Amino acid sequence: MSSNGQADLQRSIPLLGALPRPLYARAESLWAGSWTARHRHPWVQLSYAISGVLGVHTAAGSFFAPPQWAVWVPAELEHEVFTSMHAEMRSLYIRRDACTWAPPRCRVLEVTGLTRELIKQFCRLPSEYPEGESAESRLVGVLLDQLAAAPEAGFSLPMPAEGRLRGLCGELLKQPDLACSLGEWARRANTSEKTLMRAFQRETGMSFRQWRRRLRLLSALQPLEGGASVTQAALGCGYESPSAFIAAFRELFGATPGELFRRPEGSG
């Protein structure tokens, strides 16, 4: 059962012994609160959001894909996929020998207009599409080339392994607007702020301030996609000023909220 008790929204995982072709597609409409149990598989997974915001949790951190972005999950990496809102999801399963160029880590990739159209076309093909010199096989080759060149986005949040820090991060994940400083957490953990600060930097590669800022901005993606105003999203994730929120949002994502969630023509 999920943490919110919605066992009926748990998604099934395809029982595939092996992929019938180098690339395999799966299209799903997900209800708000849909989730999968932690699992792994011997192929790469690309989870792509046409609408809604997808999240992927791993032991190393969380990765988020708003519309027109996708999460790349390496083979054999234990993960779970979730969404707190209705989402249209397209998954590509890729044999490892078809993407030897990919680094062995979870990433968020930008889906360009060309890649989006290639995914749409591929999802219409049968699972055992013609191979060899067929048009279908050439389409797959072009799609893989586009994925190899896809820009990486900073829609990820590393998680520390150290127990005290993981507890702090867990509380903030549940309540991103929580006004709890690292000094306050150090007092609760009966240690010094400098000790926790050094540990946080070592385990996440970020300062506590940078990590919490990224968490708050990432937590705003789902309400913004769901139609919340910039002011509502800003206040909901702990910002007192919408202008400060927009400036921080643009700095992290390279676009304002309005620009990020503007639907490309023909994106359906």
Overview of the molecule:
The structure is a single chain. The chain has 268 residues and is of the alpha+beta class. It is 35% helix and 19% strand. The chain has helices at 113-122, 135-148, 163-174, 182-188, 193-204, 208-219, 221-225, 230-236, 242-253, 257-260; strands spanning 23-30, 44-51, 54-58, 61-65, 69-73, 80-82, 87-94, 107-110, 152-153, 156-158. Strand 3 (54-58) and strand 4 form a beta hairpin. Helix 1 packs antiparallel against helix 2 and helix 4 packs across helix 5. It starts with 22 loop residues before the first strand and ends in an 8-residue tail after the last helix.
| Residues in β-strands, percent | 15-25%
Q: Which shape, going by the Cα principal axes? A: globular
Secondary-structure-based class equals: alpha+beta
Major β-sheet profile: 6 strands, antiparallel
Number of helices: 10
* Average pLDDT, all residues: 86
Rg value: 20 Å
Could you tell me how far the N terminus lies from the C terminus, measured between alpha carbons in angstroms? Answer: 32 Å
Classify the helix fraction into a percent range.
25-40%
Number of strands: 10
Strand order of the largest sheet: 1-7-2-5-8-9
Unreliable stretches, pLDDT < 50, 5 or more residues?
1-7
Order of helices and strands: EEEEEEEEHHEEHHHHHHHH
Summarize the structure in short:
By secondary structure, the chain is α+β, with helices and mostly antiparallel strands.
